[in-house]
Amino acid sequence: MIAARLPFVPPEAALAAFAGTPDLAFLDSAARHDPRAQTSYLCLAPRAVLRLETDPYTRLRRWMAGFTPPPRPADWPFAFAGGAVGWIGYDLARRAAGLPSRFAPLPGLPGGWFGLYTQILGFDLARRELVYLGPAEELASVAARLLNAPAPPPPPALAWRAETPPPVYRQRHEALKAYIGAGDIYQANLTLRFTAPRPPGLSLAALHHALRRLSPAPFGACLEGGGCGLACASPERFLRLYPDGRVETRPIKGTAARHPDPEADARAAAALRANPKERAENLMITDLLRNDLGKVCETGSVRVPELWSVESYAQAHHLVSAVTGRLRPGLDAFDLLAATLPGGSITGAPKHRAMEIIDELEAGPRGAYCGTLAWIGFDGAMDSAIIIRTLTATADTLYAQAGGGITWDSTWSAEHDEAMIKISPLLALGQ
Known about the structure:
The structure is a single chain. This protein is α+β, with helices and mostly antiparallel strands. It has a single domain, classed as Anthranilate synthase (4-Layer Sandwich), CATH 3.60.120.10. It contains 11 helices and 22 strands. It has helices at about 10-20, 55-65, 90-95, 140-145, 165-180, 205-215, 260-275, 275-295, 335-340, 350-360, 410-425; strands at about 1-5, 25-30, 40-45, 50, 85-90, 110-115, 120-125, 130-135, 160, 185-195, 220-225, 230-235, 235-240, 245-250, 250-255, 305-310, 315-325, 350, 370-375, 380-385, 390-395, 395-405. Strands 1, 2, 3, 7, 8, 9, 10, 11, 12, 18, 21 and 22 form a 12-stranded antiparallel β-sheet that branches. Strands 4, 5, 6, 13, 14, 15, 16, 17, 19 and 20 form a 10-stranded antiparallel β-sheet that branches.
């Protein structure tokens, strides 16, 4: 294994160069002016792939333990130096948490999917540096392919169909508020979904190129394996685990639309930060994440260093908090995932009852949506995102989904508008 510097090409050009290669994993930090959006990875030629349907955490741990990682070159400058890249879907995570669903899984979509990668292109976006990690004998062919990257093709027209028209959404919203009024829950995340036939021969890379232009995000991704995959523009970090055991999660709860006028946009961000409903909604989920981290972190280490910050993206401002801790000795990334999935920001509080009500009210399974995509390093470190603002693809169908947290103060029309703001870049693909 070597680390070798190559002439810089933008990550999206590298994706175009390798589009169509089997089991490609592209982790795309495309957000502008975001301190977390400094590094992208294009992971090539996995040594193995794993489809997950049961017990994802034990199976992932055993699968990774069965490989002897190559030595890390001293001049490889990035956090991820090889390991597993992939996703665990919401439906698989809720089953692993002991909650069955009334829905059958989405046809043709596994519960989760990971590739094991030791050949990686790392992009330092601030310094405009590109470094290859992998076998020395593959370097020349990788470099040649990067120099001859084609322009990405435009995505074909897509025929989106709403599964949850506004009157149906209103009925489900009111049913959910009745549960809140009865004291069953304080908050739950209610979503709506659109579907479209997948055009023959459609490359997810083409859709991801269009999506990253419409909605650049710090936790974007394009993952395609076994005929299915994700094109993702997620703004939300789920879990960051450092090699020394430090943990951070950054739940998003609270949304306001962007405005083209800078003064109106600044007022919208300030109003979001001050909004009592949005602050209460965010605080509920922050507390839920404190509880989840407390299951696996050292006593007294869980903190909330950041509460009610505003982060701004292409379509929306979001209210974001941070929860940190330190993992207990003897525990690992898989224990951390087991304690926290599905994420609190896309379930509700209390979490298990909220998931039961979601299953009762939504139109179908969530599949990968609202699960997590992650890299998990051979050194035990991990970074992950909540799978939102994401197009899920099977061999014949595309799924786009969005929603928001419903509380007692929510109105159905405002929540529906918020969901449509979030899903708008996905529905704009192929238009």
